[in-house]
Amino acid sequence: MKNLLGQPLHVINIGIASFSEPIRAAGAGVTQLDWAPPAQGDRALGDSLARLVRHSQVDEANEQAFAAYAAASPVLEGIGIARDCLPGMKDRMILHAGPPISWERMCGPMQGAIVGALLYEGWAADAARARSMAAAGDIAFAPCHHHNAVGPMAGIVSPSMPVWIVRNAQSGNVAFSNMNEGLGKVLRFGANGPEVIERLHWMRQVLAPALQAGLKVLGPLELKPLIAQALHMGDEVHNRNAAASGLLFKKLVPALLGSGAPTADIAAVAGFIAGNDHFFLNVSMAACKAMLDAAADIPGSSMVTAMCRNGVDFAIRLSGTGAQWFTTPAPVVNGLYFPGYSIADAAPDLGDSAITETAGLGGFAMAAAPAIVKFVGGTAQDAVANTMAMTHITLGRNSGFTLPALNFGGTPAGIDARKVVDTGILPVINTGIAHRKAGIGQIGAGVTRAPLACFTNAIAALARQVSV
Amino acid sequence: MSQATRVVRNLYRDSVSLMQLSASLGKMSGVEQASVVMATPANVNLLREARFIDGEIAAGPNDLLIVLRGRSDAELGAAMESAEKALNDVPRSHAEEESAGAMAPKSIEMALSAAPAANFALISTPGEYAAAEAMKALRLGLNVMLFSDNVSLEDEIALKRLARERELLVMGPDCGTAIINGVPLAFANVVRRGAIGCIGASGTGLQQVTCLIDRLGLGISQAIGTGSHDLHKSVGGITMLQSIAALARDPETAVLVLISKPPAPEVAQKVLAAASKSGKPVVVNFIGADASAVQGKHLFPVTTLEEAASAAVALARGRRPTTPRVPANGAIAVRLLPTQRYIRGLYSGGTFCYEASLLLGRMLGDATARVWSNTPVVKDDALPDVWHSREHTIIDLGDDLFTRGRPHPMIDHRLRNERLLSEADDPEVAVILFDIVLGFGAHPNPAGEIVTAIGAAQARATKKKRQIAFVGFVCGTPADPQNLERQESTLRAAGVQLAPSNAAAVRLAASMIARKGAARTSRKVAVTR
Q: How much is the ipTM here?
């Protein structure tokens, strides 16, 4: 008993709240816990968790993981074609958002988007044929994450699609993302009509080469300072990318003009980018993926390195458990719906874009983006509160991403699965909501939470891995 | 008879708040039984065993369960409504008020980041989750008081070994009271600070000794609870041994008091050796053990909590302890019929009940006289039906058997009051003996609660031309929120014959029976205390 008798007493009171009063009255410090059984009362899991708290192996691994994430320096290197640059990408393969899923279990928008990809690739002549090919197992499906990539909503990447290439200059790992098509009838919401396919072809034939030429002129573009600047301009670079898209546009246009690309193409490309406030989203996601992959695969680490959804399942990865997914049914988002739509029309949560929250952006940086709090149903105070709440489940703050509303404190980053389970505070995610039927598009937006079960399963696995 | 059940999802409230709510619902018109609990498997089982619910309840440990039984659906509906109102009406915690907008801490680690100077965790969660919270607290460098019970021996051993390794203290599980650095923890009394350090395996035992020391004019340096299993062979007295060592070093502590039921022999040996080595006088009360077994330099064996207090006070004043003399406090007249032969003890404190059974058995001095109990000193004296007393009976109403689906008798007196009335209706009953426990966490006016039942019981007995002797004692201090003097005068005004301690109360009760036995023809018995 080195720190008790004769020392000032400060009590943390866990349970019966009325025990606090006499302690306070006697002049001692007391902190009352707002306690509820962790892990929804799963006792065995609670016991495992308890033995992981202040566990030296886990703490050291987390320090290492967080340092690698914080030191990462994502750089936009260029644009490539998926088949040429995605590791493991095969010929008749289509990548999708979220954890692995079979065709039969996929949600409407994802199936619709896959049909579109088959049409785009020219593997099927019509939608019916595309569906039967997909159902017959003629196509290999795999998560984007299994190929170092991420994609918003359905997250479809087929072999001939152009992809952003983002390299972590610090440790050399590379991440990829598909390119943003804009709003309205788009593949990522499951639309697959002629104008969607046409746009995809234009993106490969015109947009990608022009941008590639522009990026050559520009040279590798450091993304962290650009994201940091966008945060100071009201973006959280998940659901609001207006500032970041503008900043990227400012960099790209002079480069495009100096690239020797045909003027008509430059005009079309500039018009396309200028018309899409979400143009930067996919770049942001690839940057986040590059930062988080730097923190992956450190044995014992309880840091979350990915959160993603496929419209049916929600899944996370921990650094310490490598490529293993911890999966649970994806929630339907109780957000704000566009006129004429309701929660009954919504697909469950969808897309790899929660990689932004995993990296300390998006919902975690909500304090930066008061302009969209109404869009996702809240007040400016809620925005700050959401960001502050995340400080309790993260390993640190990213000093590269500062938030003016928090006195230029860094965004909370590096989700610690132990803290999620112990506090019951779930990671906040800003998200768009897709119609559950293919092709209708976005029908709302809102703030949702990563489901607890992923984290409890991950903790159970981590407890088996490290000696407790 | 109507019944109503409701599940409130994802609403957690602590057990004391829920007991208070259950008690207040139980007092509503037409409600016979009310139980508001968290729907942990253990709680649901208890309610099922008490036949309070049947069938499956679709609720989990984070859901709150309200079960009401009573006269009519309408009355239960009203009670249900008031329950929900009360649950929605919970005042914001202090932490929230202090910094509006900041989030109240939801884990120990989170609390520590808000209060890095914290050095202690007081844990009173449902037992099934308490060991995990204690484990986290220890890993985070905090000393622990586990108020929760239903923690396995295995968990207790693991926690205490870890604590010892890290030079931390684990008080409990099932540690109801402690005073650390003058700060009352859980069900503690407001006692003076002083030079006597108490270490006890029993909560009410510690309360009694600390309050009696206060009554005798001295004070407490520390009162450390070990939990009731610490001196079990498999735990090996880890907490008791750590505490003895700490108090031996503590410059504020001049005299030690150890209170426990008899430890396992090998543990007793270790504890006594450590106590003897402390170099300070140590009063040892192994309740029910043969005092001659306690031998060693600086050791002073005693047999009652009352003696423990008086010996400690004498030693702290630099005198040798003497057996306390029973003061003659004047005669009190009670009219007992020849048929009135038995004592019925209705206790809310487990250790008081045990000590009373033990002392009464010895005082009766009749090999054939038995003292029945639900927590008997010897197995043979187990009350066959705990709901019905026979001959001399001393019961602990805080026993799990009685608290299933209802609050502890220190908070809710209904069960004891009902039992008191039925005891009074028994023509063979001469004396009803009871404890009143004050302090934080106890009922705000326990004497006021029991005197209404005493009045009713006397009225009923008078109709049958009988009188019943009510003998009680108050465990508390003048500084307690309930105020010792006010509680005693309430009892006195109701005709209760008061003793200063449990042992004195038992002596008083026993003397009434003995005198009566000695003078069978006498209709009027003068008793002294």
A: 0.93
